[in-house]
Amino acid sequence: MKKSKKYIVIILSCMLFLLQIVPVYAEENNNIEWYEMIEEEYETVGNVDDAITPYTQYILNVVTSMTKLSSSKLGLRADVYCVSTVQSITVTFYLQKYTGSSWKTVSSGTASAATNVSSTAKQMTVSGLSSGTYRAKTETLVRDKYGYAETVTGYSGSLTI
After folding, report:
1. Could you say which DSSP state residue 72 is in?
2. Does the model's pTM come out above 0.70?
């Protein structure tokens, strides 16, 4: 009798363990096309100039984000990371509104330059907005002490207010 109880306890324990690893999926249906992307090696044939290969000497990454601060106010932010200290980092912000077929710039502003840094975070707010779908665009300009300059453009996701 003790052996059968032992087997029942083992079986129940295994069942409880297996029930904990049931996958759950949440899907949002926005009628958006979905493309499969896989990692695969291939040879470049033809004109190599057609390939997009960005190269920056100083800018490591620019992260552009947007936050809803109130029903008519948005906060725009750019986090800029460089590989080494640069003379200046200047970020120009553009607020864009979706007009049914394209994004139109409805506001812009340039943040004060950060000097002698390797990273910075710049923020701007935009208020008095009407309802609609918005996104942030940033153009980050980095200059070194020798005058070399490079620019990277970044976009946030969209927000509807």
Report:
1. T
2. no
How many CA atoms are closer than 13 Å to the CA of 117, on its beta-carbon side? 14
Rg (CA), the chain: 25
Which residues have a Cβ under 8 Å from the Cβ of 156 and sit 6 or more positions away?
Answer: 64, 65, 66, 76, 135, 136, 137
- Tell me the one-letter amino acid at 105: T
Tell me the one-letter amino acid at 114.
A
Q: Within 10 Å of residue 70's Cβ, how many Cβ atoms?
A: 11
Tokens 């290969």 label which residue? 53
Give the pair of three-digit tokens for residue 113: 């330059």
Mean pLDDT by 10 residues, the chain (161 residues): 71 68 54 53 56 75 91 91 95 93 92 94 90 94 94 94 88
Which token pair is 68?
A: 């809803």
Pairing assessment for the beta strands 103-110 and 59-70 based on DSSP bridges: unpaired
Task: Kindly give, in sequence order, each residue whose CB lies less than 8 Å from that of residue 115, ignoring residues fewer than 6 positions away.
Answer: 87, 88
